[in-house]
Design a protein that fits this description.
The protein is mainly β. 4% of the residues lie in helices and 38% in strands. It contains 1 helix and 10 strands, in the order αββββββββββ. The strands form 3 sheets. Strands 4, 6, 7, 8 and 9 form a 5-stranded antiparallel β-sheet that branches. A 3-stranded antiparallel β-sheet has the order 3-10-5. It has a two-stranded antiparallel sheet with strand order 1-2.
Length: 168
Amino acid sequence: MNSLDALLAAGYGPNVGGWSPPVIGAYNPPVIGAGGMDQRMVTPGTPQQGTTQHESTLRRLMCGIPITSYATTITADIICNVSEPFRPDRLMLSTAAQALHVTNLRVGTKSMNVSSNPVSGNCFSEQAINNDLSGYTALPGVGATLTLYNSTGATVVASGGFFGWSLV
């Protein structure tokens, strides 16, 4: 297990699901889920005394996807290379890219789609709720691959990005 996975497994990061007791003295914003009131608690790493950043600080970061043009009825991969270990937990597509279908999202060789069916790009809009992912960790040199399909009758330009956790 790499160090990012170890920190997230130890409870540093999102705790989304059933009700969790609030942390005294911490901000505990409520998140309304399908099962009622959930609490999302995030406990970031703490910098060493006198520094603002050091190795092994858990941070919520972003990973942009390259802007790619899709002709009609084309399926193509978008490769997202990372420079730090990164675990995506949210994908957001631009308004135009929401016309596309997400056929697969792989981190290394591990697929995050458990079926052979595509997911509508609308599921990954900025207004979409309850679409958080609990992804695998992408390591430098491995990265993530997003496979999109254009079923429309026009060319669509895909852009967007991932939000997730990294150790920096």
